């Protein structure tokens, strides 16, 4: 039986049995019980100057083929999000190119794509509220022209300049009123970007969520959903239960997605979150849909789990998806904003790119023991699509770093 060599933080090597590929099947049609988007990453040209501060040179064939793979599993693609290294290697020109190309692939494949709308094409760190509004509108209108669904991301510019919750209300009101298609609002927590501390006017999520809900209520005809990425299940359940009926909650919680997506189908997984949630009414759905960077790392597993929900088999859903949460917690471990390294690493192990490289040199952001734990957990949760290829690539990486890999797959 083939084995994996693993590397502990103290440098000790050990072996684990390599599991066979799970044999999940692609769905025969759209997934029905949940709307799920994988927040996809970008693949750079291997020979490019993929070093910090250099412009992104994207391998468009590999990058877009990955999106085609996501569509083949019945998931949608969330593009030009933080998973695609916005503000961490992907510059404004490459972001626009990615949006246009990804939207074209979605049309070709009949898939659903949403893309990030931000203010990050403006180079100045501090701009006025009016300039924030104009910057948002510039990216919003470009996204609409491409035919992609907009995700209104949290803006560093707005976080820096806003003096009160009223500034957030004003910006979102004016930007949303200019939208010609419903948008998804994105609340990104400080674990992903410390600059966003105090977003929506408060560092207390209860106060901030009240502002978010006011914005949604005031502009409900302009909003398709909200993506919460606070890594706090209680806050998500609290907001979810107070959303208008027409507004979806898309979980961005890469720590707790199994219970949040399962919802009332697997109540034992969200019981504690619901007990902790401070809610006054329960008008929303009893589950979250998904817009997750984790789903870019485990797309076939995510698809198989939602297919189980489609078939009315929550026990099978839990059996399939449950083990992946520990893997996701490792990928998104602190400092969480380096999670993109784990997503690209798994993409390489699974054969979606020829080299483990990232724009901006971010492939160096995690240690070998950290990556070894990802290998171990991916194997245990059946997230390795081609286990023998993954073993060969991982063992080659260990050897390249001066470690001997005895008696296992080359």
State the main characteristics.
410 residues; 10 strands; alpha/beta; 16 helices; eight-stranded parallel β-barrel; 42% helix
Would you write up a description of this structure?
α5 runs parallel beside α6. It contains 16 helices and 10 strands. The radius of gyration is 21 Å and the shape is globular. The protein is an alpha/beta fold and 410 residues long. Helix content is 42%, strand content 12%. The longest helix has 18 residues, at 92-109. Mean pLDDT is 94; it is low at 272-283. Strands 3-4-5-6-7-8-9-10 form an 8-stranded parallel barrel, surrounded by 4 helices.
Largest sheet features: 8 strands, parallel, barrel
Described by the principal axes of the CA atoms, the overall outline is: globular
Give, in spatial order, the strands making up the sheet with the most strands: 3-4-5-6-7-8-9-10
Query: Any idea of the CATH class?
Result: Alpha Beta
In brief, what are we looking at here?
By secondary structure, the protein is α/β, with parallel strands linked by helices.
Secondary structure topology:
Layout: E1 3-7, E2 13-17, E3 36-39, H1 60-72, E4 76-79, H2 92-109, E5 113-117, H3 129-146, E6 149-152, H4 156-161, H5 165-177, E7 183-188, H6 205-218, E8 223-229, H7 233-240, E9 248-251, H8 257-262, H9 271-276, E10 289-292, H10 294-297, H11 299-310, H12 314-321, H13 324-331, H14 339-349, H15 368-380, H16 387-400
Parallel strand pairs: 3-4, 3-10, 4-5, 5-6, 6-7, 7-8, 8-9, 9-10
Antiparallel strand pairs: 1-2
Helix pairs in contact: 1-2, 3-5, 5-6, 11-12, 13-15, 15-16
């Amino acid at each position: 039986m083939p084995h994996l060599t693993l590397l502990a933080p103290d440098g000790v090597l050990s072996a684990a049995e390599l599991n066979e590929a799970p044999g999940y099947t692609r769905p025969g049609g759209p997934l029905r019980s949940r709307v799920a988007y994988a927040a996809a990453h970008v693949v750079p040209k291997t020979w490019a100057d993929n070093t910090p501060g250099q412009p992104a040179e994207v391998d468009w064939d590999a990058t877009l083929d990955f999106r085609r793979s996501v569509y083949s599993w019945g998931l949608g693609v969330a593009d030009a999000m933080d998973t695609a290294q916005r503000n961490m290697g992907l510059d404004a020109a490459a972001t626009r190119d990615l949006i246009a190309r990804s939207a074209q692939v979605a049309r070709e494949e009949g898939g659903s794509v949403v893309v990030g709308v931000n203010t990050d094409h403006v180079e100045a760190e501090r701009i006025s509220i009016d300039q924030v509004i104009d910057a948002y509108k510039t990216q919003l209108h470009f996204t609409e022209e491409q035919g992609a669904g907009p995700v209104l991301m949290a803006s560093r510019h707005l976080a820096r300049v806003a003096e009160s919750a009223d500034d957030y209300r004003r910006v979102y009101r004016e930007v949303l009123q200019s939208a010609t298609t419903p948008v998804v609002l994105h609340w990104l927590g400080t674990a992903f970007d410390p600059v966003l501390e105090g977003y929506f006017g408060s560092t207390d999520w209860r106060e901030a969520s009240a502002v978010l809900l006011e914005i949604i209520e005031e502009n409900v005809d302009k909003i398709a959903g909200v993506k919460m990425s606070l890594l706090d299940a209680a806050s998500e359940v609290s907001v979810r239960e107070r959303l208008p009926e027409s507004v979806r909650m898309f979980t961005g919680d890469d720590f707790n997605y199994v219970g949040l997506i399962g919802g009332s189908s697997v109540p034992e997984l969200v019981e504690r979150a619901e007990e902790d949630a401070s809610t006054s009414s329960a008008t929303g759905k009893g589950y979250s849909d998904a817009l997750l960077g984790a789903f870019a790392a485990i797309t076939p597993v995510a698809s198989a789990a939602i297919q189980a929900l489609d078939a009315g088999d929550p026990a099978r859903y839990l059996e399939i998806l449950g083990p992946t949460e520990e893997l996701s917690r490792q990928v998104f471990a602190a400092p969480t904003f380096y999670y993109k390294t784990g997503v690209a690493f798994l993409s390489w192990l699974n054969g979606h790119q020829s080299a483990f490289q990232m724009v901006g040199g971010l492939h160096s952001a995690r240690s070998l023991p950290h990556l070894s734990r990802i290998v171990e957990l991916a194997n245990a949760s059946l997230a390795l699509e081609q286990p023998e290829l993954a073993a060969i690539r991982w063992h080659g990486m260990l050897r390249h770093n001066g470690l001997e890999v005895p008696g296992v797959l080359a």
